[in-house]
TrEMBL record:
Sequence segments annotated as region (Disordered): 1-28
Segments forming domain Fe/B12 periplasmic-binding: 30-285
Superkingdom assignment: Bacteria
Entries under SUPFAM superfamilies matching the protein: Helical backbone' metal receptor
Protein name (record): Cobalamin-binding protein
Biased composition (Basic and acidic residues): 1-11
Organism of derivation: Luteimonas lutimaris
CDD domains recorded: BtuF
Length: 289
């Protein structure tokens, strides 16, 4: 695989590129990342020295929190602090950061806001970000590596004797179902999302369950919870009125997927996140096959 190494680095990633110290890539040299996924990708590519500011919500890779100043949340940012860093490129995600992007553009900063919501979109995001910062070749190699990992998980899942029906809950009050890339990763891992029609909705407010009893009627075999930054409480879910009739509750199949590895549309979801779902599905199949 050329310059790509199959080993864990202290950043917590496999497949990171070891840069040539004599090589200085073209493209922006002072990058601010308003969300975690560009930070994760650039560290994985060995381009972390070009990052001058990150989101305060960044947890991957762990070293980024120690090395880089935190200049944004998700819906807000310290515009003056960002400008002091003299960025030549700012990367963010989704319409929710539109106001941040607009203010930075008005202040003369080049900004790229991606809006991908699918597994294919995440893989393509790696390629596009790499191209924009001048490292297209290693970014394409990294994206190919991510896709091969997904293909391998899908091949394993195809051999399972049964596919469980899965309810993924992104928030509890009110109940919000999983976004598109989550539903797709569930399918790759060998399960079927019980709310596929809602997964297609990009905004969280459009995935709110008006009637939580619909989960009972759809009878998921597994419930996965990832409450967007707070601890999933299986006992609270199981105690909801009427939910004792759900196979997942009856069988004790309520599992937490940590939000940093599934709710960010970046490499973590395509590696640790999908592997955790696949593990849960495989163990369920072993008990119920």
């Amino acid at each position: 695989m050329g310059s790509w190494k199959s080993r864990e680095r202290d950043a917590g990633f496999a497949g990171s590129r070891v840069p040539d110290p004599q090589f200085r890539p073209s493209g922006p040299q002072r990058i601010v990342c308003l969300t975690e996924e560009p930070t994760e990708v650039l560290y994985a590519l060995g381009e972390q020295d070009r990052i001058v500011g990150i989101s305060g919500f960044t947890v991957r890779p762990p070293r980024a929190r120690k090395e880089k100043p935190k200049v944004s949340a998700f819906t807000s940012a310290k515009i003056d602090e960002i400008l002091k860093l003299e960025p030549d490129f700012v990367v963010g995600f989704s319409d929710i950061q539109a106001d941040i992007a607009a203010e930075l553009v008005r202040r003369g900063v080049e900004v790229w806001i991606s809006n991908h919501r699918s597994v294919e979109g995440i893989v393509d995001y790696v390629r596009r970000l790499g191209a924009l910062v001048g490292v297209a070749e290693p970014a394409n190699a990294y994206a190919d590596e991510l896709q091969r990992g997904l293909d391998a998980i899908a091949a394993e899942a195809a051999r399972l004797p049964r596919r469980p029906h899965i309810y993924f809950e992104e928030w509890d009050e009110p109940p919000i179902t999983g976004i598109r890339w989550v539903a797709e990763l569930i399918r790759i891992a060998g399960g079927d999302d019980v709310f596929p029609e809602l997964a297609a909705e990009s905004l969280a407010k459009q995935r709110i369950l008006a009637d939580a009893g619909e989960v009972v009627r759809r009878a998921p075999d597994i419930i996965l919870g990832s409450w967007c930054g707070k601890k999933f409480r299986p006992e609270k879910v199981a105690a909801r009125p009427g939910w004792d009739a759900i196979p997942a509750v009856r069988d004790g199949e309520l599992h937490e997927i940590k939000s940093p590895i599934i709710l960010q549309p970046g490499p973590a979801a395509l590696t640790e996140g999908v592997r955790e779902i696949a593990r849960i599905v495989c163990e369920w199949a072993g008990r119920h096959g």
